[in-house]
Structure formats: structure tokens, C-alpha cells
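cron nightly-structures :: item 1 of 1
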Amino acid sequence: MNGSPVIILCSFFIMISLTGGVVGALTAENWSERGIEFFQMQKFEKAIQAFDNSLNLDTENETIWYNRGDALFSLQRNHEAIQSFDEALKINPEFLKALYYKEKIFNIERNYQESLKTYNKILNITPDDPGIWNKKGMTLYYLRSYKEAVQAFNIASEINPEDANIWNNMGLVYLDMGKYSQSIDAFDRALEINPHHNEALKRLEIAERRFADMKFKSW
């Protein structure tokens, strides 16, 4: 007597699974696509597992390493995310998306020394990025390297002179350096571009008050 069709069908699928007939047919690209689908559904653990399966088949794909890092970052597993981005950068040292993600994580963690190293790597690839020069300037400010910070903001403002935030940040550095005249000029420039820039408005008042006090004491 022949076996039940259901039993035969189940046995067939079990045999395929055990022999790797279907599972083994999945390529690195297939697993990567599954990982992206899981990521889009915010199923980050499953996405990581899928990317790991993909990397078991193709370890030299920087995009998969990057996507894995993205999923890890979404779970706030920042150290592991950095490791994934580093693997991507070993394959392609000019993979800007991975470098941008690294500087984002280092900023969140206030790891300014590593942020600075990452900005320098980015600027070696794209030296005309005013946003990175601006971020580098702020990092140098946090490290109290004021002269270097001003240099970074000067470069940023030359590339994009219409960014009020750059001028505001430059004014902040001059303010902390006690160079009140230069600080006022920078805040004025920020407010010419954006008259509603609240930080520049508040800091301009401080700079003008300190400048007036300094002049009064010098009389």
C-alpha cells in the first residue's frame, strides 16, 4: 500500500532540508536581500543573522558589512557596529558611508579623538565637504584646540560662506578665546544669513557685553 501523500510530501521537505537542497541554494545575494527586508521591517536581530549568513558565503562584500553595521547600530550595539564598518573599510578604504557612520557613533559617545581621526580620513577623500570641516572644527573646540578649530571653520566658511551655523560656531570659539571683536563679527555674519538664529543672537549679546566690559576696564 502506498504511503499517505501528506507523509510523503513532508518526508520530501525534511530530506531537502537535511541535504541542503533548498537552504544550500541560497546565495550571498539572497541572504543579503533577506537581511535588507528584515531591516526594513525593523527586525534587526534577524537582519544581522541574514547578513552573517551572507558573509559566510562572501566575506569580501563591503556593502554587506556596512548593512550589518547599520543593523547593529539600530540595536545600539555600537562597538560591534564599528567593527562591521571597519571590516567594510578594510575592503574599501574610501567607503564614505562607513566613515560617516563611524563619526556619527564617535560623536554620540563623545569620543572626540576618534572623531577627529575619522574626519581626517573623510577629508582626505572629499576635502571640499564643508559639513565635515564644520564638525572637525567643533571637535577641535571640544578638545580645546581653539586655533586649529578656527582654521577648520575658516576652510568651511570659504567652501560654503552662506552657512550660518559655521559662522556661529566660529564666533563661539572666538568668544571662548577672549577675542570678542572677531566673535562679534562672526555672530553678525551668522545673523545676516539667518536673522532668527537663536544661538547666534544669545551669544552676540554675551560677546558685546564682554567686549564693552573689556574696553571699560582698559580706560
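cron nightly-structures :: done
The domain at 24-92 is CATH 1.25.40.10 (Serine Threonine Protein Phosphatase 5, Tetratricopeptide repeat).
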